Amino acid sequence: MKMEAYFSKYIKNALQKNPPGEWMFDLPDECIRLNSGFPAPDLIPADGLKNAVDRLLEEEQDLPLHYVGSPRFDRLKEYIQQRLQEREMKDGEVLVTAGACQGIDLLARIFIDDQTLVAVESPTYMEALEVFQNYTDHFMSIPVDEYGLQTDQLEEVLAERQRNGQRLPKLLYTIPTFQNPTGTTMTTERRKHVLELADKFDFLIIEDDAYGELFFRDQAVLLKAMDRHDRVLHVGSLSKIVAPGMRIGWVNAAPEVITALAWFKKDLDHPFVQATMAAFLENNDMAERLNLLRETYREKRDVMISALKNYMPSSASWYISEGGYFVWVKLSGIDTSTLLPRALDEGVAFVPGQYFFLNEADGKEFLRLSFSYASRDDIADGVQKLANAIEKK
Ligand SMILES: Cc1ncc(COP(=O)(O)O)c(C=O)c1O
């Protein structure tokens, strides 16, 4: 029997595209992983989470193992709400999700149909692209520079589309702070501008703040905190600051949006994990933890930037990230997808730029390096190995 004949139009269409997660290739153990957007292994609080599980089961017995019933279920939501309020986000309701990714997927499900035009940054986070592509084939992409999304260009494109009677986007997906992959942050002026454009051209904005807590100097004001007209759908995550395997994220948006998301989400929660996370947060000082993360990742960023300065050819350039996990490198005249096998032979991995663009060719001369996962020594060695691979081309 041909099962495909029974598939919905959405999955039939999606299966025509590249398989998800192609950038997560298998690597030998000894390879230095400058490709992985994972937290540093020693910053994953395994002991703290073990204690949290012990305490949870001792205190609550069977409660967190039912569909509902653990009082800590609500406490996790309260913790998230409180933290968002500390970051000047006064409005909106929170829905806890299985990572930011489930939040993005649920938002796509309630806002996107196969005729919806979605605006994305160029480059952008590849998994979000994959999610949106499951629902629509209609995109426009707006370039990012060292100051984030180029809102002037966005305005120009929107105005031109309007003049020509072309459809306008319903959604803009942006990672305004420590963007994946470029590490850049949208300036306050551009944040104001993009909110004005949302009003003027009537679209909603998905603000993905996966890295916003990991600043090395200044904390950016959330787009959602500047939003006066419920235009912003804010998505956050504990993946980069506690542990990605816990799959804890959230959406903060207007109450009717949260209701609609919950309609689709039903009880696809992980009550035990959510209660464990709440128990972990009760017993661990997050402010202290965040300071440690910021300091550690800042040092690792510094190691990566000095290694780039020391070893890269003069044709290479990069942005200096002020937070997050990544450095975005341009190698003029080099196709980074053909460079990758050579780099792997040298013993270092990176993500070729092609994966971050709707039009893969736009990413040809770029690559993303991550300083989060590898040790300081490995970061320096890895960059040197990358330089060797470039030299041998
Ligand atoms: C911009 C961005 N958003 C979301 C995610 C995924 O977050 P989560 O693990 O909470 O689904 C990532 C992870 O790499 C990311 O870079």
From TrEMBL:
It comes from the Bacteria. The keyword Transferase applies. InterPro entries: Aminotransferase_I/II_large, Class-I_PLP-dep_aminotransf, PyrdxlP-dep_Trfase, PyrdxlP-dep_Trfase_major, PyrdxlP-dep_Trfase_small. Residues 60-384 form the Aminotransferase class I/classII large domain. It holds the Pfam family Aminotran_1_2. GO terms for molecular function: transaminase activity. Keywords: Aminotransferase, Pyridoxal phosphate, Transferase. This is PLP-dependent aminotransferase family protein. It comes from Virgibacillus siamensis.
